[in-house]
Amino acid sequence: MVERVVAVVGATGAVGREMLRTLEKRRFPLSRLVALASPRSAGVELPFAGGKVQVQALGPGSFRGVDVALFSAGAGPSREWAPVAAAAGAVVIDNSSAWRMDDQVPLVVPEVNPGAAANRPRGIIANPNCSTIQLVVALQPLHAAAHIEHIVVSTYQATSGKGHAAVEELHAQLRQLAAGESPTPSVFPGQIALNVISDWKPGRDGYSEEELKMVNETRKILGDASIGVTPTCVRVPVETGHSESVHVRFREPMSAARAKELLRSAPGVELREGDYAPGGEPQPLQAAGRDAVFVGRVRDDLCVPNAINLWVVADNLLKGAALNAVQIAEIL
Ligand SMILES: NC(=O)c1ccc[n+]([C@@H]2O[C@H](COP(=O)([O-])OP(=O)(O)OC[C@H]3O[C@@H](n4cnc5c(N)ncnc54)[C@H](OP(=O)(O)O)[C@@H]3O)[C@@H](O)[C@H]2O)c1
Q1: SS3 content of the chain, % helix, strand, coil (to 5)
Q2: SS3 for 41?
Q3: Pocket of ligand 1 contains residue 160 by CB under 6 Å
Q4: Whole-angstrom Cα distance, residue 332 to residue 28?
Q5: Ligand 1 close to Cβ of residue 316 (< 6 A)
Q6: Which residue minimizes the CA distance to atom 20 of ligand 1?
Q7: How far does residue 259's CA lie from ligand 1's centre (Å)?
Q8: Which of 67, 81, 161, 326 measures 20 to 30 Å from 34, CA to CA?
């Protein structure tokens, strides 16, 4: 097995730390790990493979000898540094939104479109948005069988999707509330503890950027620009694990029974088959730390023919980010 030199850009972040754990857990064949972050974190030591790896400040010489560079430092650093890493000979796998809709950059979910990773003229492969990844893992087998016409998806997204600082703010606000104080938001635009808010930047036509990402990325990954996607994204006071309520209408016949049959053997999916029971559905607390996309509550729609409803939950830091990126590195 060929051993690779792997760099993780944003190694101190919520996703970066999961990347280190995922590389270790999956025994990715690497000869050296280069942990990179901003100058603020230079010298910080992170646990890796039974020892420690020292974080270096990202700079022009960071990618010398690097075979694979996993980026999770935000769109700005990705725009600036991914081409530098690619020019130095590394294959870049980027978690940010910077390159996802670039025609020359494949957007890859290994269970759905692994072949797309081979065509990467810029030397960059994009990792989709966390909410989109779990959606397409659950829907691809159904789309292959009966062609999706329209998806209505409502998300319930965890605070760790907004990074390490957002999780700390959730806990700080919960402590403030318990002490009878008013929460002081800084990462979120308002109180997230005991509340539900939309915290993404505005997109267009009244939709947030996050909602538009779900529209565009779903179409690109499934390779069908005609699929209708109607998204609503909200943040809930959960630490890790995004949930989604999904209504899907098909062009060809589809039923809940057929969908369950297809999902039973779908790669990356763990299907919860039982009838509705209180507390029996997939939940973020159970999905956190697990690799699978959990699908439950598969029901025929009561009113719309050839339409089903499902409930989809996954760890946003793992399948929604770090795990998907490492899986891409594995198929290279
Ligand atoms: N969280 C999720 O569920 C999720 C899912 C999919 C995709 N993503 C994407 O992954 C990226 C990282 O998200 P996160 O949640 O891990 O954020 P985070 O916890 O805030 O971590 C950000 C990381 O980027 C580093 N960084 C920031 N600016 C930098 C710069 N100019 N140069 C070098 N390193 C820099 C930080 O280093 P310091 O510690 O030194 O500041 C830190 O390691 C974002 O693009 C996000 O959209 C996140």
Answers
A1: 35, 25, 40
A2: helix
A3: yes
A4: 12
A5: yes
A6: 163
A7: 36
A8: 161
68-89 pLDDT tens trace: 999 999 999 999 999 999 999 9
Name the residue with tokens 């969908």. 259
How many Cβ atoms sit within 10 Å of the Cβ of residue 77? Answer: 20
Tokens for 235, please give them. Answer: 């943040």
Q: Which atom of ligand 1 is nearest to the CA of 76?
A: 31
Sheet with 242-250, side-by-side order of all strands: 228-235, 148-157, 242-250, 307-314, 293-300, 269-271
Rounded Cα–Cα distance for residues 216 and 272 (Å): 29
Encode pLDDT of 216-267 as tens digits: 999 999 999 999 999 999 999 999 999 999 999 999 999 999 999 999 999 9
Residue closest via CA to ligand 1's atom 47 equals 96
Would the CB of 16 count as within 6 Å of ligand 1? yes
Tokens 């025929």 belong to: 300
Query: Which pTM does this prediction carry?
Result: 0.97
Long-range pairs for 271-279: beta carbons < 8 A, 24 or more residues apart: 271/295, 271/296, 271/298, 272/296, 272/297, 273/298
Q: Is 114 exposed, middle or buried (0-12, 13-18, 19+ CB in 10 A)?
A: middle
Spell out the domains of the chain, with CATH numbers in brackets: 4-128+321-331 (3.40.50.720), 132-316 (3.30.360.10)
For ligand 1, atom 4, name the residue with the nearest CA.
161
Host H or E run for residue 125: strand 124-126
Closest ligand 1 atom to residue 11 Cα is 43
pLDDT single digits (tens) 94-143: 999 999 999 999 999 999 999 999 999 999 999 999 999 999 999 999 99
User: How far, in Å, is the centroid of ligand 1 from the Cα of 262?
Assistant: 36
CB 68 within 8 A of CB 7: yes
